[in-house]
Amino acid sequence: RFSDVVKLDFENQKEVKAWQAKPLHYENQFDVAVGVYNLKVVFDSGGASFGKLETPLAINAYDGKDFAVSGIAFSTVFVPVKESEVNLDALLLEGRSPLVAGTGERALQFTPTGTARFKATDKVGLYFELYDPALMGEKKPTVAVNIHILDGKTSALKQDSGNVKLNDFVKAGSPVVPTGMRLPIEDLAPGQYRLEIRAADSTGSFATRTA
């Protein structure tokens, strides 16, 4: 359990209206042990009214020895960022980890969204991490993913990315592959869908994650 206060300070009514025109994005990070939890967020603005959100939260066990894929974070804000800025942000955020994929001039920082409901006109990205201990060996394997979008009711395949190699996301000396890419939803009809990530490397290791 923890609490937080977000202070808002505006110079004039114009700034107030500009702020009210879009949802407030709130972000926080915390450490928690492996397990299955119920996450509750209660919020208010000092008055009598308040809001509450509730969602299940599962933290998977990982010993660093197995090939695995993390949970998936959706994003509607992903922008280029310099690696030097990323390191500075990490210091300013006192240990918090920004979601950054890619290296050099191709690095992108993903701001996670609190919802998985989108309009066809939204620019949607996804961020996930792949864990491959074999990348620490002398002969590094090729790592790739295949992304499927399935109909949420019938499981019929609606989109198939094909085999996408993650060479540009691999960092020397690390078994963690932070990966981010755009999710093409503009051609999907309104409805419910399931996203499926199938990851594998050239040694035969594989893992699947859905959202």
What does this entry look like structurally?
The radius of gyration is 19 Å and the shape is globular. Helices cover 9% and strands 41% of the residues. With 211 residues, it is mostly beta strands. The chain contains 2 helices and 12 strands, in the order H-E-E-E-E-H-E-E-E-E-E-E-E-E.
Write the layout of secondary structure elements.
Layout: H1 13-20, E1 35-44, E2 50-59, E3 68-69, E4 73-80, H2 83-92, E5 99-101, E6 108-112, E7 124-131, E8 143-151, E9 157-165, E10 176-183, E11 193-201, E12 206-210
Antiparallel strand pairs: 1-2, 3-7, 4-6, 4-7, 5-6, 7-10, 8-9, 8-11, 11-12
What is shown here, in short?
By secondary structure, this protein is mainly β. It is built from 2 helices and 12 strands, in the order H-E-E-E-E-H-E-E-E-E-E-E-E-E. Strands 3, 4, 5, 6, 7 and 10 form a 6-stranded antiparallel sheet that branches. A 4-stranded antiparallel sheet has the order 9-8-11-12, with no helix packed on it.
Provide tags for this entry:
211 residues; mainly beta; 6-stranded antiparallel sheet; 4-stranded antiparallel sheet; 2 helices; 12 strands; 9% helix
State the separation between the terminal residues, measured CA to CA: 26 Å
Question: Into which percent range does the helicity of residues fall?
Answer: under 10%
Mean pLDDT: 90
Please work out how many helical segments DSSP would assign. 2
- The oligomerization state is single chain
Structural class: mainly beta
> Total strand count, please?
12
Low-confidence parts, pLDDT < 50 over ≥5 residues?
none
Main beta-sheet strand count, sense and barrel state: 6 strands, antiparallel
Please state roughly what percent of the residues sit in beta strands, choosing from under 5%, 5-15%, 15-25%, 25-35%, 35-45% or over 45%. Answer: 35-45%
Q: H/E element string?
A: HEEEEHEEEEEEEE
Radius of gyration: 19 Å
Overall 3D shape = globular
